[in-house]
């Protein structure tokens, strides 16, 4: 459902070429719930943006739901849902209900189907109390639930969640996680999630991709991740150790050009 | 595309309707600014009978045609010059994940219907100017053609300005020099300017095709530069050529978009 083959993206910063992501290869099968972890600046966001068509890769190839994201962006948008924890995809000045109605019209969702999905969403995400409130007046927890509802109204086959629980209190976090787990399992949605909250990973994901210095540093199950640092009690400590290890081990000097198609590490 | 534009524009109109006082003030402001332009023409003709060989009604016709084209382009596409703000704040990312062309989304974002006031004013000047001129029926058909071509030319300039902001995020004013500057430039008969400028606006940046060349055709006047009278009929071609360049530049801008850090 999601494929990356030697995908890379460089940026030119003051005349120098910086590799945000290089030679990234992985595959995510339909229905998988995968976490994408990595320290700040490791290339997670760049990866997500290449997969959603926001950024064009400078090398390699990505495919999501059978499409090349940057070339078929509009077609892809109908098949995927995206939630940015750090910013809303809703219209700031409109009541939530109008925002969702606009989403319906943009995605051309049938009115009757929309009603059913909205009812279901209101039920599970408890949106009823603030449907008439302008988005700018919603609390962060309410806004996030509204954003998740908006991302699922067209029933996407792939859901990309970029830090969906950032800034939420424990209760809201639990509600959001419960909803995502149930809804995506029922619909067989493929989910890629980035987060710094390892509670999200433990409760939602079976598989973890760890991106560090723009490369894939680990690809395996949560249990396998734990096994990389035996003796560590919590997954938090395991990941902290992995991050620290990558910081202390000497890095290969940056190549002047992105490497040609490397061996594709598949799951 | 048109459906999406109308949908988003209607949404923003409703959002703007939540602040009626602001709406009324903005409309009034637009009319006052337009009124000052007209007053400037009035002052010129209070002192002299002709402007570079053109009488008051002819200047009203030229002014009305260019300002109507600009006001309509500004109403529909003027918000493309806000793209640097969308790039910096990350809202362009959100537009790129929606199933609609980012061009339509940026152009219709914060659609402000109060700019219609300016179009009506310019249209009125054009109508008054035309009604006092004796344009033969065989040439009057060119008037709507020139206004539409002018809209396309200004829209293409707004698009080029937007595309430029993918490179120069910090300098939206550079683009304004060409759009708003172009609107001011075409208010008067181009013969008031140095012939070298007029040549540049004919063969380079085709602002002469907004109202000058087609205007000369409608008025039945010879071109001071000596170009044949059918040059004015090339306005649609000039508009389409500039629109094609603008479309390519916009696509290149989207493809080299870098997004922000988070």
From TrEMBL, chain A:
UniProt GO cellular component terms: plasma membrane
Keywords: Antibiotic resistance, ATP-binding, Nucleotide-binding, Transport
GO terms, biological process: response to antibiotic
GO molecular function: ATP binding; ATP hydrolysis activity
Domain ABC transporter: 2-238
Parts forming coiled coils: none
SUPFAM superfamilies referenced in this protein's UniProt entry, alphabetically: P-loop containing nucleoside triphosphate hydrolases
Primary location recorded for the protein, binned into one broad class: membrane
Membrane topology: Peripheral membrane protein
Entry keyword annotation includes Transmembrane: no
UniProt-listed PROSITE patterns: ABC_TRANSPORTER_2
Protein's cellular compartments: Cell membrane
Gene3D superfamilies according to UniProt: P-loop containing nucleotide triphosphate hydrolases (3.40.50.300)
Protein name: ATP-binding cassette domain-containing protein
Gene source species: Microbispora hainanensis
Top-level taxonomy: Bacteria, Bacillati, Actinomycetota, Actinomycetes, Streptosporangiales
